[in-house]
Write a structure and sequence with these properties.
This protein is α/β, with parallel strands linked by helices. It has one domain (about 10-120): Rossmann fold (3-Layer(aba) Sandwich). The chain has helices at about 15-30, 40-50, 65-75, 90-100, 110-125, and strands at about 10, 30-35, 55-60, 80-85, 105. The protein has a five-stranded parallel sheet with strand order 2-1-3-4-5, with helices on both faces. Helix 1 (about 15-30) links the parallel strand 1 (about 10) and strand 2 (about 30-35).
């Protein structure tokens, strides 16, 4: 994603195979995975502890939903770059996430090359100056 400095990333999803896939894609893009969470509550705590540059946040998770976690993270840091992950294209929920401060959303069934393109574009448009 960045030739100079590695992007520090957190991946939050209750499904281990999705976390593994996203981590594999991010590592191939030279990202540094600094945190991994399996529910929304953990995601907020890990965000506070690790302060990643970019967060991948599943919308449907236990303890706190991705939407709830997103809102808490944005309260902590309005500049947080959050990409919501979804397995359904419920545009109402996606719109709520974008309105709450998410930088983008990605469907979990997005082909790998498209996934990489969306990640690069989102980072380029939102990275801190």
């Amino acid at each position: 994603m960045s030739n100079r400095k590695q992007v520090r990333v957190m991946v939050a999803d209750d499904e281990m195979h999705i976390r593994m896939l996203i981590k594999q894609v991010l590592k191939s893009m030279n990202a540094d995975i600094v945190a991994e969470a399996k529910d929304g509550g953990q995601a907020v705590e890990m965000y506070k502890e690790k302060c990643p540059n970019m967060i991948f946040l599943d919308i449907n998770m236990p303890v706190k939903t991705g939407v709830e976690a997103l809102k808490e993270i944005i309260k902590i840091n309005q500049e947080a770059v959050v990409i919501m992950l979804t397995s359904v294209s419920d545009m109402e929920t996606v719109s709520e996430c974008i309105d709450a401060g998410a930088a983008n959303y990605i469907r979990k069934d997005t082909p790998l090359e498209e996934l990489k393109r969306l990640i690069k574009e989102t980072w380029a448009e939102n990275k801190p100056s």
